[in-house]
Amino acid sequence: MRPRVGRTSGLPWPRKGEGIVDLLRKDRLSAGVGEMMRRYRLIAPLERDGELRFDIVESPDKVTLDYYNTVKAPKSAFFPQAECMMRFGRQLGHFNQVEEVPLDETPTVLLGVRPCDARSFLLLDAIFARGPFLDPYYRARRQNTVVVSLACTKPRQTCFCHAFGSGPEDPEGSDLLLRDAGDAYLVQAVSERGKALLDELGPGLGLEKADDAHIAMAEATRQAAQSRLVAIEPVTGIEAILAGLFDSGVWAEISEKCLACGTCTYTCPTCHCFRIEDMVRAHDGERLRAWDSCMYEIFTKHASGHNPRPDQAARWRQRTMHKFEYLPRNVGRYGCVGCGRCILACPVRMDIRQVLDRVRREAAQQVEVEA
Ligand code: SF4
Ligand code: SF4
User: Fold this and answer.
1) Which ligand lies nearest to the CA atom of residue 255 in the structure?
2) Is the pTM of this model over 0.90?
């Protein structure tokens, strides 16, 4: 099949002369950020130690919205890299003391999220906030957060959201979506929660009704962003291909240069495996939950010393199968949104797009051999 640029899914954007959309002048952005900070905990991209990362905003002029994407994903707003689940201690002559940590229900606005990362929250919701096993820590933060996304104007060569039928202005997973329109942003409410935020903040933001000239400018920006996307095979159907490759030797070849550093999983917006450890001091301690990585040897090592995933080939098979076969089968979503972070961050330039291509070739070769 010829590689192609996928279509963009989600709500239709108003075109010139259609629909109702608000306009936020960029010279009012700082005042708008200040307004959000007064009412909410605001988390947005900030430059810290030479790196752009999502963090709590302390000063409106530190917010950076003109960026490609952050090194680490904004999932930490709901699922921090490390969090305390409870504290315990012992007082002489008394029983053990256990202190629960209150859930974080602080009303929050998460600003400046890229559309791929906004879609990653829907996968995390399926894991932590649906079905029989509900995660109270994740749910408390998620339920109290409004996601304000910003459409991409400059997708990177490593971006492949379009392989999933998405695109640089996909509103799925966002509550509000901003689109660049020159000296202003077009603002559209995607969910009821986003609409409520606009109703609350609208007067303070100085929103105007978008005019045709700004809608046309946003459309030109969208087309320019779309044209930067590299042609790629759609991911749809990869799960059926993977199902026949569990015992294939292709995983040894794919994983050969992997260093097992775990960087790919720590930067990924959809990876969600964690471990729980008790950090014990002389008379007290904490139970912590922290991100973990299936790329590590110890990840599946049993206390007996047996390891059901004994080598990097088995670990790379797990990473690929989990994202592209088990998750779509179990929760109806891929465990990848095409953000390209793992490609950029990997020290040996492992490229998950090439892994999928290699998997497709392997399956095609098997079919030829059997025919
Ligand atoms: S970042 Fe690269 S080298 Fe490190 S574990 Fe992932 S694939 Fe392997
Ligand atoms: S697997 Fe790589 S490209 Fe896909 S969502 Fe994770 S970091 Fe992004």
Assistant:
1) 1
2) yes
Name the DSSP class of 115: H
Which atom in ligand 1 lies closest to the alpha carbon of residue 342? 1
Cβ contact 287:84 at 8 Å: yes
pLDDT tens digit sequence for 149-159: 999 999 999 99
Distances in Å between the Cα of 358 and the Cα atoms of 51, 249, 327 are: 33, 12, 20
100 C-alpha to ligand 1 centroid (Å): 36
Q: Report the separation in Å between the CA atom of 338 and the middle of ligand 1, taken as the mean of its atom positions.
A: 16
- Of 260, 321, 322, the closest CA to residue 296 belongs to 260
**CA 85–ligand 1 middle distance (angstroms):** 29
Whether the CB-CB separation of 169 and 13 falls below 8 Å is answered with yes
CA–CA separation, 164 and 264 (whole Å): 19
The CA distance from 280 to 247, in Å, is 42
234-264 residue pLDDT tens: 999 999 999 999 999 999 999 999 999 999 9
pLDDT bracket for residue 16 (50, 70, 90): very low
Q: Are 133 and 64 in contact (CB under 8 A)?
A: no
Distance from the alpha carbon of residue 314 to the mean position of ligand 1, in angstroms: 14
End-to-end CA distance of the chain: 20
How far is 268 from 51, CA to CA, in rounded Å?
16
Nearest CA to ligand 2 atom 6: 268
CA-nearest of 11, 6, 29 to 21 is 11
The two tokens of residue 47 are 């430059």
